[in-house]
Write a structure and sequence with these properties.
- The chain has 81 residues and is mainly α.
- It has one domain.
- Helix content is 67%, strand content 0%.
- The protein has two helices and no strands.
- It is elongated, with a radius of gyration of 27 Å.
Length: 81
């Protein structure tokens, strides 16, 4: 009987392609892209909003307030607050 035990572990292929990087890298890359797209869309929305006439801005603000009030009421009803 040998004095030491030698165990070989099978080498497994990584779950990702070597050129793609690790899964956490691709997740981080996706998060960065989503953040960048969100920033661009937000900036574009802000520029469009700034160019609206005052009457349209006020109407849009009323619509948003109404929508928020409805959602808050719905949440309160669902959670019985």
């Amino acid at each position: 009987m040998p004095d030491t035990i030698h165990t070989e572990y099978p080498r497994e292929q990584p779950a990702y392609d070597a050129n793609e990087g690790s899964p956490s890298n691709s997740d981080a890359r996706g998060a960065m892209i989503a953040g960048l797209v969100g920033a661009v869309v937000g900036a574009a929305g802000y520029l469009i909003y700034q160019r609206l006439p005052d009457e349209q801005r006020e109407r849009l603000q009323r619509q948003v307030r109404t929508l928020i009030d409805q959602k808050v009421a719905e949440l309160r009803q669902n959670f019985q607050i």
